[in-house]
Amino acid sequence: MSGFWVGKRVLITGGAGFLGQTVCRLVNQQKPSLLAVPSSADYDLRTAEDAHRLLADTQPDVVIHLAARVGGIGANLQRPADLYLDNLLMGTNVIEQCRLAGTDRLVVVGTICSYPKHTKVPFTEDFLWTGYPEETNAPYGVAKLAQLVQLQANRDQYGQQGIYLMPTNLYGPGDKFHPSVSHVIPALIKKCVDAVEAGHDSIEVWGTGTASREFLYVDDAAQGILLAAEHYRGAAPVNLGANHEVAIKELVHDVAEITGFAGRIEWDATKPDGQPRRCVDPARAKELFGFEATTPFAEGLRRTYRWYLANRHEAESRGVPETPA
Predict the structure, then answer these.
(1) Which end of the chain has the lower number of beta carbons within 10 A, N or C?
(2) Is 61 exposed, middle or buried (0-12, 13-18, 19+ CB in 10 A)?
(3) Could you confirm whether 140 is annotated as catalytic?
(4) With contact defined as beta carbons under 8 Å apart, do 43 and 86 qualify?
(5) What are the angstrom distances between the C-alpha of 299 and each of 45, 158, 174, 222, 241?
(6) How far apart are CA 142 and CA 131, in angstroms?
(7) How would you class 272 by CB atoms within 10 Å of its CB: exposed for 0-12, middle for 13-18, buried for 19 or more?
(8) Strand partners, 240
(9) CA–CA gap between residue 104 and residue 230 (Å, rounded)
(10) What is the pTM of this model?
């Protein structure tokens, strides 16, 4: 970093979450004059009034909007309306209140779930509007994508300088491991650890295993967000990715090996695979603000597994019940 953050007043919504905690740690190392991390108990960002009060109370130079209601395929199927409305309202209110307050730097973090279900791999940002998202991801993905539209419309009409980033699937220490909110990597780690401890000779995994995903280590994602906030002022959305695609079958094998699970994998093909493939083109992030992921996937998995073993109560209780931050 170049000293950009020194003396800045920084507001991070969702700063208590998985990605947020890492972003806060990296920002705090840069010696800002204020690092504000509001809780949903104090500010309900689904209301314009609380979003206005938050901006008035903190008067930030930089806002990083990470607050979201999220979950894996199970949560997407059970609570699609909640995921749509809560994310839409939070993003809309934060962007508008930053516009009204004249906030100098606004970073909105979107999601790879906004890409169409059938997208040419690797995903480039120009593909965002070529189709509808995968059905289980659509309510969340469309709500987040609406924030890109709002940012670009505000830029055209008011000159607001907000930027929009799309990290691929995140993983790492601090992730959520409760089955009701976990994504694929923490869910698989917990399944395998539980099976090893109980002496079970098989685990059940949703889908067919043919889908693929790209995973970005949480520290790499946080570094990309800081670099973008410091160096990027453009209107175009930007992917944050690791340039590494892995099939779910291969991922299950990797997690089983790391956790010591040697039993059978039973695939439940009645459950959805989600989007068939996910892997983003990271070239724009490198070109515009010098971001490249540096954590090897195998090492990131090992760190995540070790963190889970050392912090199981925290890992399995985080985000339950899931509420907007």
Answers:
(1) N
(2) middle
(3) yes
(4) no
(5) 36, 45, 15, 17, 16
(6) 11
(7) middle
(8) 167
(9) 11
(10) 0.92
Two tokens at 59?
A: 């008067």
* pLDDT of 43 above 90: yes
Q: Residues 195, 198, 201, 203: what is their CA dihedral angle, to the nearest 10 degrees?
A: -30
Return d(Cα 48, Cα 275) in angstroms, integer.
33
From 43, 84, 115, 140, the catalytic residue: 140
User: What backbone torsions phi and psi does residue 245 show, to the nearest 5 degrees?
Assistant: -105, 135
Which H helix or E strand runs over 59?
A: none
> What pLDDT score does 322 carry?
44
Asked whether the predicted pLDDT for residue 181 surpasses 80, the reply is no
Token pair in block for residue 319:
């985000």
Distance (Å, rounded) from C-alpha 179 to C-alpha 72?
9
Q: What is the radius of gyration, based on Cα positions, of the chain?
A: 19
Query: CA–CA separation, 209 vs 145, rounded Å?
Result: 28
The residues, ordered by sequence, that sit 6+ positions from 2 with a Cβ below 8 Å of its Cβ are 230
For residues 36 and 232, is the Cβ–Cβ distance under 8 A?
A: no
Cα–Cα distance for residue pair 163/148, rounded to 1 Å: 8
DSSP state of 179: T
Task: Kindly report the number of other CB atoms within 10 A of residue 153's CB atom.
Answer: 12
Six token digits for residue 10: 């920084």
Residue 324 pLDDT grade (very low, low, confident, very high; cuts 50, 70, 90) = very low
Neighbour-count burial of 100, counting CB atoms closer than 10 A to its CB (0-12 exposed, 13-18 middle, 19+ buried): middle
- What are the residue ranges of helices labelled H in the chain? 18-28, 48-58, 73-78, 80-101, 138-158, 184-198, 218-231, 248-259, 283-289, 297-310, 312-317
